[in-house]
Amino acid sequence: MRTTDGLMKGELLWAEHVCESPLEQWTVSNESRATAIDGPTDVKGLGYGMPTAIASDLEWYAVSPSVSFDEGHGYEQSGVVHGVVEVEGRSPFGLDEVSAWRCHRWWTNGSDIPKMVMLRTSDREADVIFQTPEASLWTFSLDEHGWSQVM
């Protein structure tokens, strides 16, 4: 469920993303469960890990004006993040003036995807499938080069 104020709730998920001041400040709070793994290479192929509670309470602040993408499909903006991240079984860690970047991009399924979104495609099996509100399916694969869209 998503309301106009950026609140999302579901089983094992609570997230609230609030635009405090357009193009200047965002508050991003999340509580969920993640999968703890022993190392980054375990992400692909292992298929399991230890369910682990994770929470974050972050503030994002702009340090420069937004810049439009050349393709006209959105914008990007540099900023900094302050806040705390908590992972079950570990000490909380704080973020203070950490360099950050955000973007807002859009396109319709079936149209040319902006270069920034995907630079390559894959014929591999899907690792994740997203379903849009319009019931379109986007299928992605993960390898050592990052995410790519499966065609």
Structure explained in plain terms:
The two termini are 30 Å apart. Mean pLDDT is 78; it is low at 116-120. The chain folds into two domains: 7-107, no CATH class; 118-151, no CATH class. The protein is 0% helix and 56% strand. It has strands spanning 7-10, 13-21, 25-36, 50-62, 67-68, 74-87, 93-105, 121-122, 128-131, 137-143, 146-150. Strands 1, 2, 3, 4, 5, 6 and 7 form a seven-stranded antiparallel beta sheet that branches. The chain is mostly beta strands.
The overall number of domains is 2
Note the beta-strand portion. over 45%
Largest sheet: 7 strands, antiparallel
Amino-to-carboxy terminus distance: 30 Å
Fraction of helical residues: under 10%
Q: Kindly state the number of beta strands.
A: 11
Given the C-alpha coordinates, what overall shape results? Answer: globular
Tally of individual helices:
0
Low-confidence stretches: 116-120
Q: On the 0-100 scale, what is the average pLDDT?
A: 78
Backbone CA Rg = 17 Å
Look at the helices and sheets and give the structural class. Answer: mainly beta
Order of helices and strands: EEEEEEEEEEE
